[in-house]
Amino acid sequence: MQARPEKPRIAWAISGSGHYLEECLEIVRDLDDVDLFYSQAGEEVVRMYGHDPKAINKGRVYRDRAASSPPVGLFYRGDYHTLIVAPATSNTVAKMVLGLSDTLITNIYAQAGKCRIPSIVLACDTEPELDTPAPDRIVKVWPREIDLAHTHKLRSFEATTVVETPEKLLTALQERLDETK
Predict the structure, then answer these.
(1) Are 64 and 71 in contact (CB under 8 A)?
(2) Cα–Cα distance for residue pair 91/81, rounded to 1 Å
């Protein structure tokens, strides 16, 4: 395990969605103290959209390659003051709501909660109808009622802020950074 940073950082988890992916990557690139955590699908999608997952930021990069998600120990060690899950697919949101911790992202979300580290989640399925970018075009999607219900339920979780747009993500992140000063 790497040396502990001098001050707590942001842990940023990327799941397998292209919805708001470009906007999230722009925000990450503007941050200094951020480490990236990729689900297997997140790493695949970042590549599908033409990005190198290792070249997005200056921080550490963790991939979902081990059953026990060893990087969760970094949350217990105090390496992070905030977890951001953005973009968060309906699958990731559903697992978070159900308390499942079977991927790197859902595991760090659970552990962040157990360590009382606030999380900000940019859920992809927030409206009954959305236009979303595929790698080669814009497509219309209609999130299922269950997807919308899970997003709504996640809003009630302690230490979790759910946002609907990259602009709201940026606002919530700035508020969180102001709290950590």
Answers:
(1) no
(2) 25
pLDDT in tens, 103-152: 999 999 999 999 999 999 999 999 999 999 988 999 999 999 999 999 99
Q: Does domain 9-174 have CATH number 3.40.50.1950?
A: yes
Nearest to 62 by CA among 98, 9, 99: 9
DSSP structural state of residue 46: H
Three-class HEC string of 102-147: CCHHHHHHHHHHHCCCCEEEEECCCCCCEEEECCCCEEEECCCHHH
Which residues on neighbouring strands pair with residue 162, listed in sequence order? 121
**Cβ-contact 124, 167 below 8 angstroms:** no
- Say if CB 108 and CB 38 are below 8 A apart: no
Please provide the distance, in angstroms rounded to a whole number, between the alpha carbons at the two ends of the chain. Answer: 27
Which among 4, 14, 8, 62 is positioned nearest to 32, based on CA atoms?
Answer: 8
